[in-house]
Write a structure and sequence with these properties.
The longest helix has 16 residues. 48% of the residues are buried. The radius of gyration is 19 Å and the shape is globular. The chain has two domains: 155 residues, Ribosomal Protein S5, domain 2 (2-Layer Sandwich); 116 residues, GHMP kinase, C-terminal domain (Alpha-Beta Plaits, 2-Layer Sandwich), CATH 3.30.70. The chain is α+β, with helices and mostly antiparallel strands and 282 residues long. Helix 1 packs parallel to helix 2 and helix 9 runs antiparallel to helix 10. Strand 3, helix 1 and strand 4 form a beta-alpha-beta unit. 33% of the residues lie in helices and 29% in strands. Bound molecules: 4-diphosphocytidyl-2-C-methyl-D-erythritol 2-phosphate and adenosine-5'-diphosphate. The site of 4-diphosphocytidyl-2-C-methyl-D-erythritol 2-phosphate has 19 residues, from strand 1, strand 2 and helix 5.
């Protein structure tokens, strides 16, 4: 039996450059992994089946699960003669803008690679991952990176300086496809991505916080007003930087200090359906 950890991501910036002819949007975004993780175990089977076990009622255990799709892809492509049983311990909220499904898929690519000793490089796993979803290639290696294209082209960046991350997840789930479908280029406030990268290079935490920006945020906020109420609470409680992650609806606050982060966490408890306090991963 082998194990893989599948950490969630947050988007420090998210910009959309244009809509592509294939229906996807050309993005430019800085992503970073945080210490809120699903845990997966992998075991070879005597037959050729793929069995997914999970106790989370929001995720399907069949072919719709990205974990199933990732395992199936590896088994077919490398003509593996055995199947795999995958147990998933889900901690990352589902359809939250935190790439839980993508990270599980990436962990499955890494897990099957190790379990069957395939010897594939991260680059090869990322290429396979891109066929499963736009965020999967980033999740193969994690860390802090600039993602372009539809999200699959990656450039490693210096890590976000060590900090605390408080997450507030409203009870609503959000469809990424629906949010991208409502993008309006005329009213878009673009992030200053270059300046945010410079801040990371300088390891200037507060400068990074000053450049958090996500063009999808106003779209999802219009659908779910709860998001702006969570944002205001986090700002009032002293978050150094506060932003919605991905297509939402999860909002995160960055804080350099544990006591401040705990204050933000306490101000959200009872106000927001799920609240987490974690560190960023370096
Ligand atoms: C918004 C982001 C930001 O990190 O994350 P989440 O909110 O999902 O976590 C990602 O771009 C989401 O990536 P991911 O969730 O992997 O998307 P995919 O499965 O590839 O695509 C789902 C749908 O989103 C739209 N889509 C996705 C990526 C992209 N660059 N342009 C798009 O228009 C397409 O309509 C597509 O059918
Ligand atoms: N292993 C998985 N974990 C979570 N969601 C999954 C998984 N496999 C498929 N899904 C489906 O993918 C959708 C988006 O999931 P998720 O990755 O959690 O959201 P997001 O892309 O917003 O970060 C969900 O509606 C869920 O049904």
């Amino acid at each position: 039996m082998i194990y893989e950890k599948a950490p969630a991501k947050i988007n420090l910036t998210l910009d959309i450059l244009h809509k592509r002819t294939d229906g996807y949007h050309e993005v430019e975004m800085i992503m970073t992994t945080i210490d809120l993780s699903d845990r997966l175990s992998f075991e070879k089977r005597g037959d050729q089946k793929i069995l997914i076990e999970s106790d989370n009622r929001f995720v399907p255990n069949d072919k719709r699960n990205l974990v199933y799709q990732a395992a199936d892809l590896m088994i077919r492509k490398y003509e593996l003669s055995q199947g795999v049983t995958i147990h998933m311990d889900k901690n990352i909220p589902v359809a939250a803008g935190l790439a839980g499904g993508s990270s599980d898929a990436a962990a499955t690519l890494r897990g099957v690679n190790r379990l069957f000793e395939l010897g594939l490089t991260s680059g090869e796993l990322q290429e396979l991952g891109a066929t499963l979803g736009s965020d999967v290639p980033f999740c193969v290696t994690g860390g802090t990176a600039l993602a372009t294209g539809r999200g699959e082209k990656l450039k490693p960046l210096p890590a976000l300086p060590p900090c605390w991350v408080v997450l507030g997840k409203p009870s609503v789930g959000v469809s990424t496809k629906e949010v991208y479908g409502k993008v309006n280029f005329e009213q878009m406030k673009h992030p200053q991505t270059e300046e945010a990268i410079h801040a990371l290079e300088q390891q200037d935490f507060y400068e990074v916080c000053d450049h958090l920006e996500n063009v999808l945020e106003p779209i999802t906020v219009r659908m779910h007003g709860e998001i702006s109420r969570i944002k205001s609470r986090m700002e009032q409680a002293g978050g150094d930087g506060v932003l919605m992650s991905g297509s939402g609806p999860t909002v995160f606050a960055l804080s350099a200090h544990q006591s401040r982060a705990e204050g933000i966490y306490n101000s959200l408890k009872g106000f927001c359906s799920e609240v987490y306090i974690v560190r960023n991963l370096r």
